[in-house]
Hints:
Number of strands of chain B: 2
Largest sheet of chain B: 2 strands, antiparallel
Shape of chain A: globular
Number of domains of chain B: 1
Distance between the termini of chain B: 34 Å
Oligomer: heterodimer
Number of helices of chain B: 13
CATH architecture of the largest domain in chain A: 3-Layer(aba) Sandwich
Amino acid sequence: xxxxxxxxxxxxxxxxxxxxxxxxxxxxxxxxxxxGFLGPNGAGKSTFxxxxxxxxxxxGNLEVLGLDPRKDRHKLLKEVCSITDVAVxxxxxxxxxxxxxxxGVHPGFDLQKCHSxxxxxxxxxxxxxxxxxxxxxxxxxxxxxxxxxARLLVxxxxxxxxxxxxxxxxxxxxxxxYYDGEKTILISTHQVEEIEGVLSDAVxxxxxxxxxxxxxxSINKKFLxxxxxxxxxxxxxxxxxxxQRVELGxxxxxxxxxxxxxxxxxxxxxxxxxxxxxxxxxxxTKNGDNA
Amino acid sequence: MMTVLxxxxxxxxxxxxLAFIYAPFIVALVLCAVIIxxxxxxxxxxxxxxxxxxxxYDEKYKEGMLLASPEAKTAVIRAGLVVLGxxxxxxxxxxxxxxxxxxxxxxxxxxxxxxxxxxxxxxxxTVMSKLVFIVVVIPLLVLPNLILLQLVASLSVSIYxxxxxxxxxxxxxxxxxxxxxxxxxxxLWAQALWSLPIFLWLMLSGTYFKKPVIGAVVPLVALVVLxxxxxxxxxxxxxxxxxxGFWSRADSFPIQYEEARVVDITDVYLMITTQAFWIxxxxxxxxxxxxxxxxxxxxxxxxx
Lengths: 291, 304
């Protein structure tokens, strides 16, 4: 099945005060992907998402839905939604006023749908944003976004500062009620473990570069984590793991492109958590840089 | 496009109803209360600089009004009604200066700019909606308060004049009564256009500076001082003073009216034909471009 290219980046760079926040990003995102951008602070995740939304100028080639996001931001935002920070909804407005406003300026917004989504929450339409909790503000923002018929949704740390219940609700609502298999979602977050089950693809970033990108399915096939039996540790190490750590006093080895059968005799084998793989890749990158 | 503009202007009204709906209305109500109580003889306002009292209507005044021509009586009444509205206009004027300074600074401060920018509204449309709000909508919001004040004042004065044999009832309700409302609205629109460079300058400061008040004032003071030192001139200072004042009294206006009066539509036309007006329009266009550029590129949300 042919998938539309939603984001196409080639050699995208962003320079701030002689240091590169983005240093040659090459990336292609197709429709239906739920792509997670993972990386430490300063990796360039937010900068890249901002450039996708046309909020900052970048060097190189960047196309979003076939448009130049910087030049055609206004046109692009009819097809692209974003939640780029928590609690950015204007505090002085009531919920109804915000909905009226979005209804008036966004051709793809379905007011009835938004009312219906909100009716399942505790948010009153007459409430001012400033009296809502942070969780409710994000819930309101998500309800607005879900009522917009957009092709691309950009989420930059959407659940920052929220408690666990709201974070879980946010992602389950996103997947169950919003995602239809055709829409594309780009997510950047520090809470990797919470979006692990949501992602179709992951991009690991560090120091403005992409250090790894792949589908979750492929990652699960490619990487395996082994907790070797005590007597198999040396044999396991001889198979050249790409990373090694100690967890609760037990060695955990990460292998790349190693057959499951070879490892299963040596101990407990499973695909790595994205967060652990991310740490391993970062360590590997750092060691590679130091070497 | 019109729906978008209407929606954006409605948002401005909702956000700033305190400054442009409640504040002028409260001032109008206070003035109405003062007028009614003065003409009922309940109170007198006497200060060293200002007096508002029925004591002014002494025998000499009565005699003067009885002898005055109908045109002179009408002119006095029309001018009186205009002067009454000045406190409302000053309230809105200060509100406008505060609005201009804060409208783009506040959206940076509370980070709601991120939300506005996530919607398909161009920066130019946003700036133009605020410009239309200032020039067209705010005068329309102010006018009902002026009308209310004029009606209350005219009724109070009519009753007082008739009961004291100063002027017959019909003179107060001149043929200009309703048509002056149109003159006033045109005059307010003209005033907003005249002062537009000042409002836009304040807006520009709000889009860029961490401290918008200092950002708005310091460069202008510096310009005034530098112009004085280098060119021994004070064009910048005069420009600012003129734009902050009433357009009909500006230095560049061909006929400077010293007295308070209802301006005619022809005066507005005259203003549009002046070079100073077009200099203001060009300055405004440059400032609009500056605001659009700064709002779309400035990602610094620190505002103090």
